[in-house]
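Appendix B. One record, verbatim.
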Amino acid sequence: MKQTMGQLTIGATLADAVLQSNNDYDRNVRSRIARTRTLYSDAPKLSDLSRLLLRITVREFLNWNGTRKPGTFFDLVGLLEREVVDTEADLRQWLSTLASREKLLAIPFIGPKTADYLKILVGLPVAAMDRHLLGFLELAGLGKLRYPVGQDIVHRTADLMQLNRSHLDHSIWRYMSGSKASAVDGVPLGGQPVDLCFPGTTPSHRTVPVRGTVRNS
């Protein structure tokens, strides 16, 4: 789902990152993120979100009955407050620093994939390796790879093909998850994730928003 800048709220971005982990996005996450953007559109910044959470619970904000994901969300908000992150632009800049990853991974239930997925949500070019991407590399004959090794291969491949790393990530994910269309530069790939990935066959330098990418692993 393509969004305009006016629709972006940092609370919805953080909720997306937290709720997608080990979840069916279309069934359990997509409608909740849409609800959050609609109900709390007047709270686009983290400072607005913090004031909002003085009036409602995190579970109400997320529309989530469990306790683990609201706890992770609360910890994530607290971390970003301490890091003086307020806007999505601040978040993007902070996620671009090396120190941010270690701090994110210190939060219970945030792993490498969620940390990288959060980067994708703010427009940073990275692959968030899940079972689909790692499975694709295994089908390619590379064996069972650890997260950083698999990510390095996807990143190097995207760079060689002059593609946005997150677009190649999403293309492979859509293919492996059984989707009928993929999204390298927003162009359907016709059943093969490499059909339009080679330089000269796709407008690879055109920037296409990847917000709205759905993942479940």
